[in-house]
TrEMBL record:
<dbReference type="InterPro" id="IPR052228">
    <property type="entry name" value="Sec_Metab_Biosynth_Oxidored"/>
</dbReference>
<dbReference type="InterPro" id="IPR002347">
    <property type="entry name" value="SDR_fam"/>
</dbReference>
<protein>
    <recommendedName>
        <fullName>NAD(P)-binding protein</fullName>
    </recommendedName>
</protein>
<keyword id="KW-0560">Oxidoreductase</keyword>
<dbReference type="InterPro" id="IPR036291">
    <property type="entry name" value="NAD(P)-bd_dom_sf"/>
</dbReference>
<dbReference type="Pfam" id="PF00106">
    <property type="entry name" value="adh_short"/>
</dbReference>
<dbReference type="GO" id="GO:0016491">
    <property type="term" value="F:oxidoreductase activity"/>
</dbReference>
Amino acid sequence: MNFPKFPPLDFDLEKPAYRALAVSLISTVAFFVYKSNRRASRLKAIQATNANAVSTYFAPSASKSNVTVPVAIFLGGTAGIGRGMAEAFARYTNGNAHIIILGRNEANAKAIISTFPKPTVHGARHEFVQCDATLMAECERVLQDLRARLPRINYLVISPMLVKTFGEEKTTEGKEPKLVLMYYARFKFIKELTGALEKAKEQGEEAKVYIVGGAGLGKSIDWDDLGFRKKGYSFLKIRAQFPLYMTVILQEFAARSPSLTFIDSYPGPVRSALGDNLRWMVARFLYKVLFSATFPFSYSESGEYMLHAMLTTAKTPGVWNVGMYGSTLPISKIYQASEKERKILWEHSVEETSIQ
């Protein structure tokens, strides 16, 4: 078979056009190498800081002869950033922590826990508790169990999310599941576990709530239509309002429990399994292409930065708002709610999360 012959390509670097192209290609490669090296260097520094923070706080000292076994709950810890934080926390504590992963996927949870370092001190253990957080009754069941057997909690990390469609759905309880996971379940877990967090603080230990959400995002809240009961649902409304729901309610939690630390985060775009549950194959494909093209963090990399925010950035009680690298966001980006607004949202949230 005779193949057609093509004229040889003439890349003459003496020609201005080819020289400009070569310079452009070299510059592009150099830029990405620089960014990659800088990113790796930053991550390495954060990992060292995380390791030091955990070893310093939980190691024996002159005032405490025994190792303190931290109690950490990860709601939504079977995937995404919650998983990344749980894995990093287990690694830095050398497995010597009581880690509880709450979620829907038991197989994922057991696979994750199997990678944790094995505990070597009394009281340390790793467990999975099945919880479909889209259902208030299920949340209540799990919360009753946790309150009954956990006298203290050091860290409550909340990151559940499930998106099957951008349209409105209803659970068996008649609630929109995305709204529940983005706000109402989060509110309920914080409210019901506040007592155990305060107990840890009373004992001189850390007591922090960490939210993987949308700190600094959101436009405004329609106070006449909380929960979209009157004017109808849309996914755009969720994106515009629900980040502010969490901003406002954390300010109210901080006012009610001034000894506790509350962290609201915006981790930015992160490669995770969030898009895997979309019902449309085209939507799943576009989601993966979009997130691959934007060079976002992996869930484990983001987990390191978010753990850094929880362990190091948020040093004192109150509300902290952090960005993708775990550093504080400018105060100008955070909505400051009035006492009246906080009270209105609190009463609405209690009503929505109560078991009838």
